[in-house]
Amino acid sequence: xxxxxxxxxxxxxxxxxxxxxxxxxxxxxxxxxxxxxxxxxxxxxxxxxxxxxxxxxxxxxxxxxxxxxxxxxxxxxxxxxxxxxxxxxxxxxxxxxxxxxxxxxxxxxxxxxxxxxxxxxxxxxxxxxxxxxxxxxxxxxxxxxxxxxxxxxxxxxxxxxxxxxxxxxxxxxxxxxxxxxxxxxxxxxxxxxxxxxxxxxxxxxxxxxxxxxxxxxxxxxxxxxxxx
Amino acid sequence: xxxxxxxxxxxxxxxxxxxxxxxxxxxxxxxxxxxxxxxxxxxxxxxxxxxxxxxxxxxxxxxxxxxxxxxxxxxxxxxxxxxxxxxxxxxxxxxxxxxxxxxxxxxxxxxxxxxxxxxxxxxxxxxxxxxxxxxxxxxxxxxxxxxxxxxxxxxxxxxxxxxxxxxxxxxxxxxxxxxx
Lengths: 228, 180
Hints:
The structure holds two protein chains of two kinds. Chain A is an alpha+beta fold. Chain A has two domains: about 50 residues, no CATH class; about 160 residues, no CATH class. Chain A is about 30% helix and about 25% strand. Chain A has six helices and nine strands; from the N terminus they run H-H-H-H-H-H-E-E-E-E-E-E-E-E-E. Chain A has a five-stranded antiparallel sheet with strand order 6-3-2-1-9, with no helix packed on it. Chain A has a four-stranded antiparallel sheet with strand order 5-4-7-8, with no helix packed on it. In chain A, strand 4 and strand 5 form a beta hairpin. In chain A, helix 1 packs across helix 3. By secondary structure, chain B is an all-alpha fold. Chain B has two domains: about 100 residues, RNA polymerase sigma factor, region 2, helix turn helix motif (Rna Polymerase Sigma Factor, Chain: A), CATH 1.10.1740.10; about 60 residues, Arc Repressor Mutant, subunit A (Orthogonal Bundle). Chain B has ten helices and no strands. In chain B, helix 2 runs antiparallel to helix 3. About 10% of the residues of chain B have low confidence. Chains A and B meet through helix 1, helix 3, helix 4 and strand 5 of A and helix 1, helix 2, helix 3, helix 5 and helix 7 of B.
């Protein structure tokens, strides 16, 4: 112990620091010492590891989706989803978009709130029929809505949805399918224009999804969208 | 269930600025960390704000994770707990927060990440039982609720210095047990 005059020693001081029990001036001078004392830092890390299991008794509580959206907005400048998106966003600037804008202008006074029915749909099916998932796109909310019709992820695995945009060299992850029920995936702005004409695919991945940017498991099913 | 090795791999990818790994890490761990923030802050709006800070910190500090030598959940819980305590200490007035625990208990947890390695847990649990139960309870409240020496002294109706001496002796004992 480097403070023999202190009967409790640095270890106890480090524990008090980790627990945030020191008063502001003690806390500040401890942090000052930490900067160039690796041994003291080691004591802090030891106590952090000792105390962390106390949090085991804390039950997990799912945070609302807005927290993740805010984190992404803060870190990557991704816009938070808005409710005023239109067709053109998904279809690029083709004739469809023109038709959509026309339709929007004609029907805008009536279409309030926005139309939440899917505008195009895809069926993702495994060649042997063991897995069938339907996907519908709702342009108004930038969502892909997925329902499992047949089959599920292999035991201990999850299903991850990918988009291979037309002409793109690599798939982009769109998100994970829930183990049960309907999954709604909000498609980021930069990816959305490629959805209508691209191929979507499902791969099986470890829990939490592919640890890399690319699918790591088997591609189980693919599909493309058609207008409804 | 996501294993510690999965989470470790995700953190390593996040250090390389991999957004999809970051998203996967969030999905696997945010429910646990939100639980920790809520336990400390006992206020939903504040816990949401702090959880944001937590993941922003994780994104920026993922590369320094290995230096700590922690298991992945230890690191994540420590970040969440420390930022929550910081927020607690910044509250200007000690308003009595509404107890939301009962309401929150019904919330469905998200995908649950595997918690701390069982050997670490068994060790601290065993050593805590060697303490005076009141002191063990005090350590727990300090860790999970951000209780202070002042608050503990008040609750146990003893002078501040007495409380501090008790707790420091308990920490010494704990250390002695943990290194045994």
